[in-house]
Structure formats: structure tokens, C-alpha cells
Amino acid sequence: MHPQRQHLHNELHARPSIYFAEPAHVHHYAFLADAEEHAGLLASLSETTGLAFETERVQQIVTLDNAVLKWERHTEFSTLTLMVPKAPGGEPWPAPPAWLAQVVDACSATLINATLVLAEGGDTWRGSAEAYGFADPAGSQVGGGDATVWSDFRLGDDGVNRLLLLNAGLNAFRLGRMVRRLLEIETYRMMASLSLPLAKELALELQAYEVELGELSDRNAEQAEANPRPLLTALSQLSARLERSGSRSRQRFSATDAYARIVFTRIEELREARVGDCPRLGTFILRRFRPTVHYCAAIHQRQQRLAESAARLNDLLRTRAQVEIEEQNTSILNSLNERASIQLKIQKAVEGLSIIVISYYIFSLFKLGLESLKGLGVEVQPYLAAAVLTPLGGLIIGLLAWRIWRVKRH
Phi/psi of residue 376, each to 5°? Predict the structure, then answer.
């Protein structure tokens, strides 16, 4: 058996929902947390509840009296979900239990989402969503008409978003899954929206970069004969700033795209139908959420296109600089060829002069030798001396020329 088979197969059961029956309250909190902060969250939870949690797991469901608690560890955030059965005649929007409020307060600096779901039967319907404290609510029939969900998506004084679910035909399994979808829509919507402040900040930054790149492009077009090094230096600095900006935002924009896809999928899984004249939940959410996602994607694409434009201009400048370098190299090579040609001519002239000088020196030696013979009383006739010395001198000069040729050849 493959060593990963069991682990991969059990991914189907990795994140089960809390299955319950109405009436009930579901408190849900999401915290931005890395591994250390997640460990601190579990430590605080263990201290307040007195339970031990398995920190190596990614989720765990435990029972506290008549409530059910589930914690989950995600890539960038951690969630706490508590299901508490509603007491008959109890408040529709109660505060969380004291121990849970203590844990939330301890991690309030990283709290990204707080949602309270009231799940009731359809027979307890008060006649209107306004009776539950909603103003201008949005509502939808979900699950093929087996439940109705209402919310105005306004945060209360405690910073909690409230959802009302009226169950008409969902069993405990489907009710738990439906509530989980609603909570995931809110949590992933908030996580996807984290890049909106960054996108707005980058919009101003990219505008300045675009102006700077346009000026560099104009200088490149207008100063075709100028030295490209100053332009290359300025463009390299701009490219470095663009790369730093991209590395700072790339992960955030990628996460926004992934979270948004989950939100869109979860809204489709609701299988909504209109309730009266109210807008549907999905329509209400997407009316502002989709433009947020598109704006972040547009800023990311704008950033990428700007970096690509800077790279193209950089290639043009480098090509221009390379052409100039090649022209300089060609000029240097031509100059070297001219110098070599001149040196060759000088060398040939020196060789010729050397042969003439050596020849003159040899004939002078022969003349001196003949005069010495005459002093010794040996008379040598001129024609005889010419007949002997001329071939001999020619042979010596020929040997010298042949020797010089061999030296040059090697």
C-alpha cells in the first residue's frame, strides 16, 4: 500500500461540520493567525475550558456540557465555532458564553470575522425579518426551498454579523452543512477583502511608476544617439521598485483570487430562490464583493503589465547599448588592422634595408680581403674576383632572405 494512501483518502473526512437540530445558536469567530498565534489560541482555549487539544491536528470537535465546540486551522487563519441549543423563550441574539468571550477578547487584535447564526423552525417565524432586528434585510430560500435565510449584513454594537435561518425541511446533517456554507461565505469574503487596502495603496504607487516609465520611454525615443547608460541606471532602479512592490503584494492577490472562488462556489451551492421583494443574499453580497475582487485583480494585472513594459524597455536599451559596443569593437578592430598593416609594411622595409646593409657589409669584407691579398703580393684579377664573389654574395644574401622568411612563417 502506498504510504500516503490512508492520509489522502481521509481528506474526504478532514473537516466535518457540526450536525445539530434547531433551535440553536451558532457562534463563529475567525482569527488571522500563523502557527505561533494558533498555538496561543489553543492554549487560551485549553486554559478557559480545562480541556486538552491535539495541536498537531487541523481541526477538532469537542463537547462542552450541552454545547459543541469546533476549532479549525487554515493556512492564514483559525476559526472557533460553538453550537449552543437555544433555550425556549431565550434571546434571539445572545452574547457568547463567558469563557468564549474571554478567549475572543484575548485574540481580538486578529479577529477578522464574527458571525452569529440563529437557526429556528419555520413555525416560530415572527412574520418579518424586521422583527428580529434587521434593517433593510436580504433574504433567500436556500437548499431547494427547505430553508430561508435572512440578514442585513450590518455589524451590531459588539461587532457581530447576524444571520437568521428558518428551517423547513433540513435534517441535522443538511442543516449543519448549510450553516457551514453561510459561515464560510462570510469568513472567506473577509479574507478575500484583505487585499483591498493594499490595492488602493498600490494604485497610487503604480500611477507614479507609470509616469516615470513614460518619461524614460520618451527619453529613449528622443535621445537615440545619447549614451544609454543613464537610462539603464534609472530603469534598473524602477524595475527594482516594481519587483519589490510585486513581491509584497503577489501572495495577497493570489490569496484573494483563491478565497473569492470559494465564495462564488459556496453561493452557488446555496441554490437560492427569491423571497418576496427582498434582494437575495447572494445578489446582495456579490453586488459589492465582486467589484472588490475585480478591482484587486485589475491592480494585480496592471502591476504585471507595468513590470513587463519595464522589462521590454530594458531589453531595448540593452540592445541599443550592445549595438554601440559592437560598433566600438568594430572600430577598434579596424584600427588594429590598420596598425598591423602599417607594422607589416615597416617590417618589410626594415627587412629590405637589413638585406642591403648585410650585403654591403659582406662585399666590404670581401673587398678588404682582396686588398689584403694584394698587400701580400697576390694579384687577383677583377674579372676573376667578380666571377667568384658575385655568386657567393648572391648565395649568402639568398640564404639570409630564406632565413628571414622562415622566421616570419613560424
Answer: -85, 0
- Taking the C-alpha atoms of 40, 43, 49 and 50 in order, what is their torsion angle to the nearest 10 degrees? -170
Strand partners, 70: 61, 81
pLDDT score of 328: 77
pLDDT in tens, 309-331: 888 888 777 777 776 777 778 88
272 forms bridges with which residues in the sheet? none
Q: 259 is written with which cell numbers?
A: 478565497
pTM as predicted: 0.77
pLDDT average, residue stretch 164-181:
94
- At 58-92, the pLDDT tens digits run 899 999 888 999 999 998 999 999 999 998 888 89
Please list the alpha-helical segments (H only) found in 121-228: 172-192, 195-222
Distance CA 184, CA 72 (A): 12
Q: From CA 131, how far away is CA 134, in angstroms rounded?
A: 7
DSSP 24-64: EEEEEEEEE--HHHHHHHHHHHHHHH-----TTSSEEEEEE
| pLDDT surpasses 80 at 344 | no
96 close to 104: Cβ distance less than 8 angstroms: yes
Distances in whole angstroms, Cα of residue 268 to Cα of each of 66, 174, 321: 33, 16, 56
